[in-house]
Amino acid sequence: MAMPNKRPIRELIACQKPGWSLEQRFYTDPEIYQLELDQIIMRNWIFAAHASELANPGDFKVVNVENESAIIVHGQDGLIRAFANVCRHRGSLVCLEETGNTRKFTCPYHGWVYNSEGELVGMRDMPDEFHREDYGLNTVSIARVHGLIFICFCDDPPTLESACRDLEVPMTMFGFPNLKVAATKTYPIAANWKLAVENYQECYHCASAHVDYAKMHTLMLDDKKYERVQSNMRDRMSACGITDMEIDRNEFLAPEGEQGYSYSRSALFEDYKTGSKDGEPIAPLLGELTDYDGGASDIAFGPVNFFLAYSDHVVGYVFTPVDLENCECKVFWFVRGDAEEGKDYNVADLMWLWDLTTYADEKIIVDNWKGVRSRYYQPGLLSGMERSEQRWLAWVLHELRRAPHLQ
Ligand code: FES
Ligand SMILES: [Fe+2]
Q1: Is residue 90 lining ligand 1, measured as CB closer than 6 Å?
Q2: Ligand 1 atom closest to the CA of 112, numbered from 1
Q3: In percent, how much of the chain has pLDDT > 70?
Q4: Domains of the chain and any CATH numbers
Q5: Residue 215: Cβ within 10 Å count
Q6: In terms of pTM, does the model score above 0.90?
Q7: Coil vs helix vs strand at 377
Q8: Which residue has the higher pLDDT, 332 or 223?
Q9: Residue 322 pLDDT
């Protein structure tokens, strides 16, 4: 049976209604997925590691995103670089370990050897005209923002200069350069990646899906109630060493060629000093803080990286696609670099809220995905509490439209 003609992608993008969820094909069409990889995932910065994970020469970490794999390695010369984890001989993955410390990477296939600066330093029986200096590992773009290391799988990534400058004050307050990773966990989600990012950006679902989160975070309150708790927190902020500021250079507002970013702090309910079960501190105060103001800061970098800074710990979220129908969410829990496990914090308490919340999110995202694939799915009108999601969707469409073959 002949398939009905599909509407061209350019037309499909043009007829999406602002303020509505996307048409089904944005979640199910392999051609659109490929476009998203090319225009969004491979062209924007992805959080890969905290500098403390690569503190010593030889420390390395492998980060996989869709079909790409990168080795991030602290060279013997002190520089941290990123390389494509793809052998220059016949393309095998070179490093099969996730983390470690080494002076050299030996390809498991035919034994070519690369040093921690990415140079090819050993191979057997190659023709005379072979010059090993031409066969170093390909580089992957890398950037560091106040201790956070980002990678990008393209050679002309958006600049992070303005993000670095504008976020210096809040990221210094919370001591981002001196954090360490206390725990990390990857949550596979059987759904198209956009549904996971959309879900992270709205709190319309929080009251019904996250009972524990809703006891401490105030984002689901109506405007009047929210403003009351927010102003109580603001009164406490400066006494705790926290500067009141809001930065909004999110994707849509960032100039061409610049990675979008944002920062804001919102109040927790009165009895909560941090995101813990009983509201009491669970780790030493971060950075320059002198007390708990009862707030939590949201920091976003580009389309897939989000950080939530409480007064005593930070939770980082990175969403990446695995394929059209699967994605993963990597969560990082950070504490002060000098905090000692068992004495200053314990990992179970630290992970409790966002582990629980992420599993609950996984469930609603997968249920959402199941419905989105139904023949009865149709785009729905978004609520005022889904404003950030609306803006993110508009940016996604804008980026897709920029594909050279759609111009
Ligand atoms: S593919 Fe790596 S040595 Fe042959
Ligand atoms: Fe959620």
Answers
A1: yes
A2: 3
A3: 99
A4: 46-142 (2.102.10.10), 160-401 (3.90.380.10)
A5: 14
A6: yes
A7: coil
A8: 332
A9: 98
